[in-house]
Structure formats: C-alpha cells, structure tokens
Amino acid sequence: MYLNTFKSVSFILVFLAFSLGSSLNGFGQTKTNTYDIVLAGFTIGSMQADKTTTPKGEDYQIHSKVEFWFFGKIHVEFLQKAHYENGQLMKATTNSDSNRGNFLTSVTWNKDHYDVDANSYKFHNEEPINQIINSSTAALYFHEPKAGDVLISENFGMLTTVREIEKGVYEIDVNGNMNRFHYEGGVLQKVVLENNIKNYTIKRRVD
Q: 146-204, pLDDT tens digit by residue?
C-alpha cells in the first residue's frame, strides 16, 4: 500500500503547467503558471510551470514539491526541463529528489531517434524512440490537445495517445495509470491522476 501511494505521488509530478500570466524580457516571452496539488481534500504541495519562447524555440521548466504523512513522512521535489526547436522535442530531463531516492531521466534527439534513459521509483526504461516527437505531457498544460495526438511522458520516456472522453476532457495512459485533463474554453482547469488508492488532483490556482 505504501509503495502504490508513493508511486502515485511520482505520477503527480509528471504532469504540469497552466497559463496565468506572462512576462517579457530581452531573451524571450515567459508564461508562469501556479497550481495546488490536492489529496483527499488536503493541499499537499504546490507547482510552478514556466514556458519560455525564444527565437531558438521553446523551453519548459516544471518545479514542484509535495510533502505529506502516510505511515511516515513522504517528500518529493521534482524538476523537469524540455527544449523544443521548430516544434520538435530535442531534449528533456527530469530530476526527482525524495526520501526514497534520487532519480534522473533524460530523453535526447540523436540524428534519427531519441536516446532514452528513464529512471523513477521501481522503474527503468532504455527503449529508444524511432519517431519525431512534437508534444509532451508538459505541453498539455499550456495547449488543449486533440483526440489522437501522440505525445511523450518525459519522466518515463514513453509515448502515449490522447483520447477525448467528453468535450474538453482528455485521457492519457502513462505507464498503466489513466490521467484526465479538464479544459474550459481551451484553458486547463485541473488534472486528475487515478490510481487504486486515492485520486490526486492538480488544480489551477486563481489568486
């Protein structure tokens, strides 16, 4: 039971981002988004997502922290970065620091394929991806997808296909877990991460 709960927390930290505002500097335009991470009605963490557009492409950075008590204190800090050029993913890294260990994942474009070295709690994947990737889970939090879109889970280095459940609600399978993204007027409102113990929710923070 503890293992499943901890794995579910890890899944929470894979999924991120929503547009609340933007700032302009000499290097590009940045949108910064903030969220609450909720478990059983209690806020257990927070998340900030940044998307920066420059003449060279787009960069995403996701930073979140979760901390709660479940037969012991559980702490996870998550940092994810993804770089796109001309709409194609070129490199993504995910670093998670927890009281169950530190894990690093990298996905890197290499001539005609992606080299994958994915590591998380009780998970490892080195299967290369032999097709160009144009979207990812991070992008879902900035852009409403379409049914049939193929994207990558940066943390697991695995492809998944978007399925529309109803208008504005989309589902993806990430390593066996079904996750739903809810949009209103093209704007992401929440993400529900389902598992066999508890549902976790990432909610848009409105200040």
A: 999 999 999 999 999 999 999 999 999 988 889 999 999 988 899 998 765 567 899 99
SS percent in the chain: helix, strand, coil, step 5: 5, 60, 30
Domain parsing of the chain, residue ranges: 2-204
- What whole-number distance in Å separates Cα of residue 75 and Cα of residue 130? 35
Task: Write down the pTM of the prediction.
Answer: 0.80
Could you give the C-alpha distances from 100 to 34, 49, 144, 180, in angstroms and in order? 26, 24, 34, 27
CA 79 to chain centre: 10
User: Whose structure tokens read 């997808």?
Assistant: 145
The pair of three-digit structure tokens given for residue 117, joined into one six-digit string: 């070295």
CA distance 31 to 135: 18
